[in-house]
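Thread title: Can someone regenerate the structure for this chain?

I was given the following input by a collaborator and told the matching structure tokens would be attached. They weren't. Posting the sequence so someone can regenerate them.
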Amino acid sequence: MDYKSAESQLSAERTYLGQRTKCAAAEVCAPLIKWPGGKRLLLKHILPLVGEPSRYFEPFIGGGALFFALPIRTATLGDNNSELINAYVHVRDCCERVISALRRLGNSEAEYYRARESQPKSDLGRAVRFLYLCRLSFNGIHRTNLRGEFNVPYGQKTHLSSCDDQLLQAASAKLKSAKLRCDDFEDCVSSAKLGDTVYLDPPYTVAHGNNGFVKYNAKIFSWEDQRRLAAVARELAAKGCKVVVSNAHHPSIHALYYGFQMAIVQRHSIMAADPTFRRPTEECLFFNEVAV
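Best answer:
Regenerated them for you:
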């Protein structure tokens, strides 16, 4: 699959999901943003494992592709990225103020870089800056350096408006069902109980990895975090929760999830700037129950 084909697939997916945004908040809608490691292209593999949960927990929400694709009545969503959670909170709680602020921003290279260099003092201003940069950045992604500074260049998509009103309103309606937490994953899922569904999608790190992306993630999510996550997954399964985990396809990861079923899935990466790096990659899904 080349870049244009992948973009067409995502566009078709968004069109389909967008047709359902007029439904109630419990229905599905398109994700609000793209996120490195996002699961849009793996939904066909993950959705059958998750089913239609009544109480749902996702402590590594990122772009929320799975959450936005599920009919959920109650959700607890978390992430340790405070800018991300702040943006979701403002979309949920004061969407029209976010839309109004975004409409005042233009789509130009100069304005984009002014926004990228800015440091808003208000929480609303931070949310607007975050969403604006995600919308107009190259390939529409969010990425920061190790200092936490947004470093994606301007996307040159001058045909886009700075604000997608319908997408924001649909996401706001969907997020009404969610409690949002900027917290450690273990704390986010601590109240999960029998019958609840938990989806865990951490940054991918492996033991003794020599891949640059894995090394970068190791600064964010260490190998010890991976071991702790696997222990939490087993505790949740023992409580009677339905647990699904996305992780790297690597022997060191496989060994952590003893007792879980495993499926190897393939997707085509479309996030790399250089087309030579947009190649099929394999990931693993670990789960303790298949929805019927």
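Confidence is low (pLDDT under 50) at residues 1-25.
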